[in-house]
Amino acid sequence: MKVFHRDHKINFVDSNNVLVGFDYSQNCCENFGYSILKKPAETFNQVINGESPDYIAECYSFDTTFNEVTVWGDEEYSVLFRLISPRKIDLYLYLYNAHNGYYSHGFTMQSKTKTIYDGEV
Domain map of the chain by residue range? Predict the structure, then answer.
């Protein structure tokens, strides 16, 4: 999987050409971003064994049958995408946004020209 940061967007593209794009533009004082997690229940900004999330995700591809959008309280929104790899544990791409409900960040999952998931956190 490759990770591209450009024009206030971040795109994750796996070897099957599946793309997850995330609006990465800062609005006011919200706390938003992404992490790679071992389990969906882990906390914000968890990095596995001190490695860069971009480096860890390189040998993984997206499971296009799985995503989970969650709302935690009134101010924290997130979406999980499962990452799979032969002979390795599943990981999760975690996109999050903690805010007061006014600012949101869009995300999309696409395979070639087909949109699989679309929403905002």
Answer: 2-120
One DSSP character per residue, 48-101 reads GGG--HHHHGGG-EEEEEEEEEEEETTTEEEEEEEEE-TTS--EEEEEEEESSS
Q: Kindly tell me the burial class for residue 89, based on how many C-beta atoms sit within 10 Å of its own C-beta (0-12, 13-18, 19 or more).
A: exposed
CB under 8 A, 24+ apart: contacts of 38-42: 38/89, 38/91, 38/92, 39/92, 40/68, 40/80, 40/92, 40/94, 42/94
The answer to pTM > 0.85 is: no
Q: 54 pLDDT band (50/70/90 cuts)?
A: low
Token pair for 10: 């971040």
